[in-house]
Amino acid sequence: MEVPAEISAVRLARRVGKRMTVLVDEIDEQGAVCRSYADAPEIDGMVFVADAEGLQVGDFVEVEITASDEHDLWGERV
């Protein structure tokens, strides 16, 4: 793993277990593709939420982060 990716993975892993409000950017067959206030569209990582029932693009939703990798986060709605 390259040093920047390793640093990113460590930083994102610190968010696991924390709650955050995310913005829904799109809904697909796997759920909602979201981003946090600190993430620029098409540049930064995403927050993936499997349970997108009732969500629409543009909604804000509270999630608890459950997993991470060097670029993205996964969360569950709370």
From TrEMBL:
Keywords: Transferase
Gene3D superfamilies in the record: Nucleic acid-binding proteins
Highest taxon listed in the record's lineage: Bacteria
One Pfam family cited in the UniProt record for this chain: TRAM_2
Keyword Transferase: yes
Keyword Lipid biosynthesis: no
Any one GO molecular function term: 4 iron, 4 sulfur cluster binding
GO cellular component: cytosol
Domain TRAM: 13-78
Matching InterPro entries: NA-bd_OB-fold (IPR012340), Ribosomal_uS12_MeSTrfase_RimO (IPR005840), TRAM_dom (IPR002792)
Protein name: TRAM domain-containing protein
Record organism: Pseudogulbenkiania subflava DSM 22618
